[in-house]
Design brief:
This protein is α+β, with helices and mostly antiparallel strands and about 375 residues long. Helices cover about 35% and strands about 25% of the residues.
Amino acid sequence: MTGETVLIAAFSARALAASARRAGYEPLVVDCFGDEDTVALAAASRCLPARVQVGFTARPLIAALESLVAEASSPPIGLVLGSGFECNPRLVSKIAARFPLIGNDAETIQRTKDPAHFFRILDELGVPHPETRLDAPSDTDGWLMKRIGGSGGLHIHICPSEPRRDVRRYFQRRIAGEEISLMGLVSEKSAAFAASRQWTSPLPRRPFRYGGATGSLPLEEDLEARLIEMSLAVSEALSLRGIVSFDYLLRDGEPFLLEVNPRPGATLDVFDDAAGTLFKAHVEACRGGDPAALLASGWHPPVARAAAFLYADKGPLSVSSIDWPDWASDRPRPGSVIGAGQPLATVIAEGLSVDEVQAACVQRLGALETLLYDHSNKKGAQQ
């Protein structure tokens, strides 16, 4: 147990806070939800609601972080960023001027999320990717429109016939295939990877909304070697460090790299173990150490685990006080009002195969949705 404090900021910080706590740190957390379990995991926390499309703003975020530092039992070792910062490297730069980052810096995030730079690097490395362009194609049929720095699939749209000009958008030819993600732990000394299969939870206007992930996904040996080789080349070219995710699409056995997220993501719930080894390895990698050696000596993830998001797709609801299942996380506080379509909770399942745990997650999503809406409706009727 380290007993050291660490700052964490993300749209939803529960997974990072849980991993940090398991690793022996005292997490000091800023996120947008302030869920019950996040608050319970944190040594101290601040809730700053923010729109996913816009993200955090500098002044309130820095003030919240500084207030946590003032309350901390010891000086934090640094700041770990989760989702919510890829779209705003300038904000990351401002934060880094106040707090030491444990992760990729603003320049690395800018290079990774700038499509002009990123896809040029892929071409130079010979890494396959869908045809990508900054200006709209003359014929938009079969094309996607994406927002630079977006996450969670909410930034991806079927390209309209006459897209409005927007410098925050780029265009990518749509190809069909299986979605595979590699979680990488990369440093100057070594790298390690684990594969997951992802799925969507589509809405009519959000057809690519993130649904969940299951792993560790067994891969054919040659395919695994090729994915790792490409991910290593991209990591080196972009100077990536720590936990990073590489999103691929597999079409007829051929992998295409779609994007890279230069921070810990949703698969932390899938691959972390009871000792918070991934958080320890992230810190180690960002400090110039050898994460692969740490993983080899003590990483014990389950055989198979899946994690999926539950959204408020049956309409807005006021969350009641309920007995939460032990497989449900990101638990809103009683009285929280969740808007239609917004994230509501996360469900997790463990088992012996990726198919088994994915099916279990789907079943649990339905059960938790029924539980939450039934209790909300009963509360409303009593009022």
